[in-house]
Amino acid sequence: MRKRLVAWTILTCVLLAVAVWTVLGPPQYASGPHLPSRNVTAAAR
Question: What is the pTM of this model?
Fold first, then answer.
C-alpha cells in the first residue's frame, strides 16, 4: 500500500514537471545568472 502511494506521488510529480517543461520550455535561468554578472563586471573594468 505504501509503495503504491510513493510510486503514485513520484509519477504525478514527473508528469507535472514534464507539463511545466513543455509549457515554459527548458529553464534558462538555472545556469544563466552567473554569466551576465561576470560579463557586467568585465565590461565595467
Answer: 0.50
